[in-house]
Amino acid sequence: MKVGVLTGGGDCPGLNAVIRAVVRKGEQEYGCAFVGFKDGWRGAVEGRTVPLGIPAVRGILPRGGTILGSSRTNPFKTENGVRDIKDNLAKYEVDALVAIGGEDTLGVAARLHDEYGIPCVGVPKTIDNDLSATDYTFGFDTAVGIATEAIDRLHTTAESHMRVLVVEVMGRHAGWIALHSGLAGGANVILIPEQRFDVDQVCAWVTSRFKASYAPIVVVAEGAMPKDGDMVLKDGTKDSFGHVRLSGVGEWLAKEIEERTGKEARTTVLGHIQRGGTPSAFDRWLATRFGLHAIDAVHEGDFGKMVALKGTDIVRVPIADATAKLKTVDPALYREAGVFFG
Ligand code: F6P
């Protein structure tokens, strides 16, 4: 059996761990041959490949990024995209495809399988942790660790200068990174996209924190929105899946806080640092197990499925189930954190 592998969407710590596990088990136990498609769906559309086998995956477990490259190419927005994918799968004699990605990449895999009969198995990745049908995606734990370390470091500057430090974290339209890193880092305010925020309330928390002789850290998710207003964006461009490029709310909020409280407020935008570098042990463990189970699904011909974490078990779910609805933060979970605000 020949298996194609691709990684799509934003890069994410743990992608290489999945590729390694898929290839190691596939070659060693099932006698599979592999081909890598370069840069996500773009490589499958354009027929750009890289050789993939055990020698190519040696030493990649701790490496961030993806040895296959990635892109946000949407074959359904590319002329003859689906036909080209089919032709290239035939050209390279690929019997099955392992697609490693988030909502967009897996959404394409679901459609290719359900509507065009292309044999795909999905593996969920994203630092945002916003995919339904899996308890966690790999990449999230690493991103939370990086954001938490940044918050720890920012506390010392905030205290030394008695200024407000606003930390903008990623997560798109889900507040998972903000909530987990904010709690772990002892933030005094955490703002998430799921709950619109009131700037006056934020300022009241900031002021009360100063009254206790401490300097406040405000963690704001890039997708968080003020109660009366639109999403604050530095740059309104969209990718080929129609997603707007987020970021800007951190800078905006610091200015508002400074004007309304008279306290100096500065912003740190963590950006791609959250996705870079070596994966945490948890993400390597999860990514490796996802890879092992994905190649099992391929071997058994169980296509149209995605591997998912349920408790400590890896299960299979229809890919379409994982992409139908975003997994967002429950209001009750967010309320739990409220005791630390202010
Ligand atoms: O989905 C992962 C993610 O890092 C989001 O948190 C963020 O909004 C987006 O990707 C940024 O994408 P890009 O790197 O393409 O600008």
Itemize the secondary structure elements and their pairings.
Elements: E1 2-7, H1 15-30, E2 33-37, H2 41-46, E3 49-52, H3 54-57, H4 81-91, E4 96-101, H5 103-116, E5 120-124, H6 140-161, E6 164-169, H7 176-184, E7 189-191, H8 199-211, E8 217-221, H9 249-261, E9 265-269, H10 281-300, E10 305-310, E11 313-318, H11 319-323, H12 331-337
Helix pairs in contact: 1-10, 6-7, 8-9
Bound molecules: 6-O-phosphono-beta-D-fructofuranose.
Q: Could you explain how this protein is built, in words?
A:
The chain is of the alpha/beta class. It has two domains: 2-138 and 279-324, Rossmann fold, CATH 3.40.50; 141-276, Rossmann fold. The chain is built from twelve helices and eleven strands. The protein has a seven-stranded mixed beta sheet with strand order 3-2-1-4-5-10-11, with helices on both faces. The longest helix has 22 residues, at 140-161. The chain is elongated and about 65 Å long. The structure holds 6-O-phosphono-beta-D-fructofuranose. 6-O-phosphono-beta-D-fructofuranose is lined by residues 10, 102, 126-128, 170-172, 222, 245-246, 275.
Uncertain runs with pLDDT below 50, 5 residues or more? none
The whole-angstrom Rg is 21 Å
For the terminal residues, how far apart are their CA atoms? 59 Å
- Ligands in the structure? 6-O-phosphono-beta-D-fructofuranose
The number of helical runs is 12
Q: Major sheet, described briefly?
A: 7 strands, mixed
Helix content: 40-55%
Overall structural class, as computed from helix and strand content, comes to alpha/beta
What is the correct CATH architecture of the largest domain? 3-Layer(aba) Sandwich
CATH topology (level 3) name of the largest domain: Rossmann fold
Number of strands: 11
Largest sheet strand order:
3-2-1-4-5-10-11
What's the CATH C level of the largest domain? Alpha Beta
Query: What's the number of structural domains?
Result: 2
Approximate shape: elongated
How would you state the average pLDDT, rounded?
97
Order of helices and strands: EHEHEHHEHEHEHEHEHEHEEHH
Strand content: 15-25%
